[in-house]
Amino acid sequence: MTEIVRELTVDEWDSIVHLSKAVGWDYHRKEVEIIFKNGTVFGIQDNGKLVACGALISYDEKKIGSIGMVIVHPSHQGKGLGRKLTEACINKKTQTQSLMLIATKEGEPLYRKVGFQTTGRIVKYTNPSATFFNDLVQAHPFERFMFQDVVDLDAMAFGERREGFLQDRIKQASKAYVLIKDEGIVGYGLAIDTPYNRIIGPLICNTEEGAIDLIRALLLGYSGRVRIDMPEKRERVEAFLQKAGFSLSATPPLMVKGELPDRNGTLISIAAQAFG
């Protein structure tokens, strides 16, 4: 095969979804669409078939780039394709842009070789099948006039403005809630339904008690599989999740190349591993 890395186009979305299924991952068409809208996707083919891909996702100010959706077909693993795609993403970033990614255990040594350092671990909780809450919550349904306040809140938590991404994500969301106190909006959360589960994130709040209320709101009346990925341990949130039937399913490494902008510590759960 000729290991030529090229930028993929929107008519190759289904090939990416098929590749994801080949490794047991759960990327679906809508998720791939949002990745394309917010980043650049690279791929490698063998005899006209997509056998590897990877994406660099950038946000409004291009302070942070998130490398994600790095997938290599099982029949082509061990041939250096993952490294080629990672290097393509690194070469695509701006000169001042820092990079982050969430690695698999197998991928961590590769990313170290190209300059990434492990800075923490994602705390991934899942609940395979449950019926959730129908009680009262303090959170309010998101309304369109709240959007700029949510963008500002998100920027302080994430370290960069993500207005374009949040526009897409809120449209995709099955539920969107905000938490309002005297000082205004202090938290927000989204629930994203996929063919496989409900993802809780991004979720940002200035207290863990508020975060728990947002989680309850996002799960009102829901029955099915749920996933929440937190960028750091949260004692009270984790106790709540465990009591609600969640279990800790993985702690993949969070890796960074460069220095991330300051964050204010209110990022409770991430949008998805590809988005950082």
UniProtKB/TrEMBL annotation:
Spell out the InterPro entries in the cross-references.
Answer: Acyl/Acetyltrans_Enzymes, Acyl_CoA_acyltransferase, GNAT_dom, YitH/HolE_GNAT
Task: Fetch the SUPFAM superfamilies from UniProt.
Answer: Acyl-CoA N-acyltransferases (Nat)
Q: Which GO terms describe its molecular function?
A: acyltransferase activity, transferring groups other than amino-acyl groups
Q: Does the keyword Repressor apply?
A: no
Provide the N-acetyltransferase domain boundaries. Answer: 3-143
Q: Which PROSITE patterns match?
A: GNAT
Keywords for the protein's UniProt record, in alphabetical order: Transferase
Q: Which PANTHER family match?
A: BLL4206 PROTEIN, SLL0310 PROTEIN
The protein depicted here goes by the name Acetyltransferase
Taxonomy-wise, where does this protein's organism fall, top ranks first?
A: Bacteria, Bacillati, Bacillota, Bacilli, Bacillales
